Amino acid sequence: MTAERIKKCYGSLQLLIQIGLFCLLAWGMDLLSVYLELPIPGSVLGLAILLLLMGLKLVPEKSVKLGAGWLTGELLLFFIPPVISIIKYESLFEQYSLPLILTLVIGSVCVLLGTGFVVDRVFRFETKMNTRRLNAAKAIGEV
Amino acid sequence: MSQSMLAIVSLAFTLSCYFLIKQLYLKKRVWWLAPILMVPVIIVLFVISLNIPLPAYFEYTHWLMALLAPATIAFSVPIYRERKLIFSYPLTIGFGVVTGLLLGLLSSWGLTQIFSLPPELSHSTLVRSVSTPFAMEATSAFGGVPELTAMLVLLTGIIGMLVSEPLFKLAKINSPLAIGAALGAAAHGAGAAKASEFGKEEGVVASLTMIFTGIAMVLGAPFFSIFLV
């Protein structure tokens, strides 16, 4: 085996182990959430806990980066099965196809325009504030 | 073919179709080859034409869904990586998330009321603009059906991807943060992919907005459902 192949094998193994660890954490957090009767689902609890662990430097980012990249990158694959069960609801979708599509299109336009508009304004305001703060800090430094 | 044979074929076909279309899209970059559109279409045609019973299709493929929860946890990594951006623009990102979430909920609620859609559809539509793992988690609080929710989330993603560019031009929305936040809030993963075509910053902001909107939806669902169901 060439060095390159060994490296590739090692990379795949690393990826598999990291995905396994994410699954284990998801499973454990789910149990915890059910056991403690928390209103937060295990997956979101796990997200918060891993973020905290990385923030406290207890888990280095590079030890979970590979698995996280794969899991978030192939997200579409994981929800193909429920989408396929649309076959079961064929008549429902057929009967309401036009109002449903209109709902989705008009709704999406609302969210796109509304969010874009608000963020555009808030961004300008916040940039102004950030520059002012920066200038103030500089002025203090100069005095 | 026996049921278990069909189940194995279903899993093999689903995996190969997904990875092939993905490769093809990366090479050709035409919108109708986008995996979010093409993969479900091909697999639905496959299941219908081979007359595969749904229980056989789900026998093994349902394990793919088990990866939705680990994927949710994996979203902590992009949040951690982009912490500098979040700390520099907390107001901008926060307003984007809150506006996107409320507009998504209210527009879905209002429109399904106007068109008087049946409850299983209208309830499943409420969470349509957040990323699938969060939507599947939140939909039960609104009395939605997970399978219908998955389909509506997918359609919303495709629509957002297609209408966003002309819409931004028309409305003169051109700052990277506004484009990113709008796409992340309106069209989750598909929107984030579209946003990264505009630029790196747009893509990052879209991903962050998508993740935070999803978390907020899951945490807020029991509360919002009091008013909207």
Annotation keywords:
heterodimer, A: 143 residues, mainly alpha, 2 domains, 0% strand, B: 229 residues, 12 helices, CidB/LrgB (chain B), transmembrane helix (chain B)
Could you characterize the architecture of this molecule?
Chain A is mainly α and 143 residues long. Chain A has two domains: 1-78, no CATH class; 80-143. Helix content of chain A is 82%, strand content 0%. Chain A has helices at residues 3-35, 42-55, 65-73, 75-78, 80-84, 90-95, 97-142. The termini of chain A are far apart. The model of chain A has no long low-confidence stretch (mean pLDDT 92). With 229 residues, chain B is mainly α. Chain B folds into two domains: 3-65, no CATH class; 74-228, no CATH class. In chain B, 83% of the residues lie in helices and 0% in strands. In chain B, helix 7 crosses helix 12 (200-228), helix 9 (132-138) runs parallel beside helix 12 and helix 10 (146-171) crosses helix 11 (176-198). Chain B starts with a helix and ends with a helix. The model of chain B has no long low-confidence stretch (mean pLDDT 94). Chains A and B meet through helix 1, helix 2, helix 3, helix 4 and helix 5 of A and helix 1, helix 2, helix 3, helix 4 and helix 5 of B.
Largest interface: A-B, 75 and 98 residues
What's the pLDDT, averaged over the residues of chain A? Answer: 92
Assembly state here?
heterodimer
For the termini of chain A, the CA-CA separation is 65 Å
Structural class of chain A: mainly alpha
| SSE order of chain B | HHHHHHHHHHHH
| Beta-strand content bin of chain B | under 5%
Q: Which segments of chain B are poorly predicted (pLDDT under 50) over 5 or more consecutive residues?
A: none
Helix content of chain B: over 70%
Structural class of chain B: mainly alpha
Q: Taking Cα atoms only, what radius of gyration of chain B do you get, to the nearest Å?
A: 18 Å
Mean pLDDT of chain B: 94
User: Number of folding domains of chain B?
Assistant: 2
Helix-strand string of chain A = HHHHHHH
Q: Please give the number of β-strands of chain A.
A: 0
